[in-house]
Amino acid sequence: MFALALQTLRFRRTSFIASTVALFFGAVILTACGGLMETGIRHRVPPFAAVPPGTQQAASRLISMSAVFGGIAAMVTVFIVGSTLALVVQQRLGEMALLRAIGTLPGQLRRMIVVETLVVALVAVALALVPGYLAGGWMLEQIAASGVVTKGITYHAGWIPMVTAGGTSMLAALTAAFIASRRAALSRPADALAESRLQHRWLSGPRLAFAVLCLAGGTALAVVTGTVMNGEVAASTAGPSAMLWAGGIALLGPGLTKVLTGVFHRPLRALFGLTGDLAMDNARARRIRIAGAVSPVMLATGLSTALIYLQTTLSAGQGGDGVGAWVDYLLAGSIIAYAVISLVNTLVVAAAERRREFALQRLVGATPGQILAMTGIESLLVTIVGTVLGTFVAAATLAPFRMALDGSWLPRGPVWIYLSIVGFVGALTALASVSATGAALRTPPAEALATL
């Protein structure tokens, strides 16, 4: 199985490079957060406590700040790494069905996938250690320059944050690989072959249970925020509620994507004609993989909008806290960057998988321009659906928070912030989709059919 796993890594370079990139950036963020926390501990907790006055208070701020940032970053990392690896495994259902048909045992398939993931995770974590260390030092410089902590704090990051970040990233990857491989290994070969091109089954008992728990938790925190909390302290429950809302919606993504695709089918068909109709048919048939691209858009739009407008609303109402604002802006920027990386990964992997489909379309008379137009419309649908879901996440977070402040429902802050987030994510979605499709179209149709 080890030799077969290495052969698969060489053959499916695009998919595994995407997984490596997702793991790499997650490990960089977690290593940086761990370095900041160790720095704060070394300046606050004996026997490392610093003597200069004011340093210990700044160190306490740094500890709390890195804990909040690291916790949410870890949740986002687990989600993005899990979704990326699940997509990679989904694309290999046909290959696994053939292996099952020739006598490969389910346990052997699972071991093969786990070994592949372990190799990818080791490479990604090893590459992330030095950039993570440097990123932590850069973040401390920015925090000190903004006045959140004193400039007397010196950056210290030893082996503990590196091991913790690497272990967290590898655990997330291996857990996601085991969960994704379990269904593929236990499915009957005939069923797996039927599912390999157009996947229809997505909802399982554990997935539904986790989705319900996330949505129930988000609802509970929203109620607590709007009815129990008062003033600035309401942000302590509003922020976590955004993560729970986003997690629940992401778990139910394929079903919600199907519903919203039906809603926007007629408008997009009327706007783009037959090309739009073909794009909508593809989206309906591939709703589970479309949902894989919708989720990063939802994350970037929803969480960034919620975190930024939490601070603009607080600043407009009661002045706010510079530390909280800095953390939220840092979180928003990191989430956008990481979600964008995940989005580009998803679109590149999806386009590489569709080379056979594109080749068949070209053989029956479709031009490269028509195929690019079709995928461009699909990316527009991804942006619209992701924006709708992300806006819901932001609204469910911000409305109770504003209620806790002054009884109103609408957040305070310039509307251009929201429009800029949506425009940036939408433009990047279109650019990544069209670029990945263009790269796939460079392969001649006959060659694409022969190699797939």
From TrEMBL:
Residues 68-184, 330-444 form the ABC3 transporter permease C-terminal domain. It holds the Pfam family FtsX. One of its GO terms (cellular component) is plasma membrane. It is a multi-pass membrane protein. Its main location: membrane. Signal peptide: none annotated. It comes from the Bacteria. The chain crosses the membrane at residues 16-37, 62-89, 118-139, 159-180, 208-230, 242-264, 290-309, 329-350, 371-395, 415-434. The keyword Transmembrane applies. It is found in: Cell membrane. Keywords: Cell membrane, Membrane, Transmembrane, Transmembrane helix. This is ABC transporter permease. It comes from Kitasatospora xanthocidica.
